[in-house]
Design a protein that fits this description.
- The structure is a homodimer.
- The first copy, chain A, is α+β, with helices and mostly antiparallel strands.
- The two termini of chain A are 36 Å apart.
- The first copy, chain A, has a three-stranded antiparallel beta sheet.
- Chain A has a single domain, classed as Orthogonal Bundle (Arc Repressor Mutant, subunit A).
- Helix content of chain A is 56%, strand content 12%.
- At the A-B interface, helix 1, helix 2, strand 1, helix 3 and helix 5 of A face helix 1, helix 2, strand 1, helix 3 and helix 5 of B.
- The structure holds a DNA duplex.
Chain lengths: 116, 116
DNA sequence: TTTAGCGGTTACCAGTTGGTAACCAGAATG
DNA sequence: CATTCTGGTTACCAACTGGTAACCGCTAAA
């Protein structure tokens, strides 16, 4: 029998940053929303048009959550009909490198799955 | 009323790399498993001990999925009792920058939530 | 023969997620 | 007055997720 190695890792015991971050970007549609907002600010119905298949309910839910997390800012223009613009906050902008890294791996995964 | 901007984004229409990658690392416990395996190869029961709270069922499910995705390699040593070692593949190793980026954002999120 | 350890598998079940469809307020338009 | 537009909210419901607990085959040791 192989020697049993002991757990001597230094970092992620309980509420690790990985889970912290993934709980924000992990939900359905969330990455898409962040992606589009990272390009430029967008209005509610623009996001709804940009992201094919998303429902108003989910879009509302995700934007509310992202706003609560400090990732997205909601700005209401008092026009008529009112228009609401969403943009990434500074913190939201810091998600970009992570998103980019994920996208980069995603490309490789697609390439491999496409080959097979 | 604000002018209605048209969707002219270039990249992520359907099965975008973001969703492709997050479908791999998004499930419960998965980031933890990848984290531990990125440090060094580990055996089943080591992972089970390392990750507090995970059940054998979930660990099995995750490892199978990761193996099917080409992220993890399963290696059986014909000892007695048999020992099974899991390690990241080359592709799995490429997940590390993404994981690191996510961890880095997670730290900032924890800092902000800790302040509030 | 019984027990223990490894690496799982299986049945069952509760909670969460996300989908659809209907509905809402306020203001402008016909 | 009815309709349209934006930006949602709500009720309802099916599917998926993940948890618990019991069980399995194999080998070695007591």
């Amino acid at each position: 029998m192989l020697p049993r190695r002991k757990n001597l890792v230094e970092e992620p015991p309980e509420r690790c940053p990985l889970n912290e971050c993934l709980s924000i970007i992990g939900g359905a549609w969330t990455p898409n929303i962040i992606w589009y907002l990272s390009e430029k600010p967008r209005r509610f119905s623009e996001l709804k048009d940009d992201i094919p298949g998303i429902s108003a309910k989910m879009l509302t839910a995700r934007l509310k959550r992202l706003e609560a997390d400090g990732v997205v800012e909601r700005r209401v223009e008092p026009t008529s009909p009112p228009s609401v613009e969403y943009r990434l906050t500074a913190l939201g902008g810091e998600l970009k490198p992570a998103i980019d890294a994920i996208v980069s791996v995603g490309h490789r995964l697609k390439a491999l799955n496409g080959e097979g």
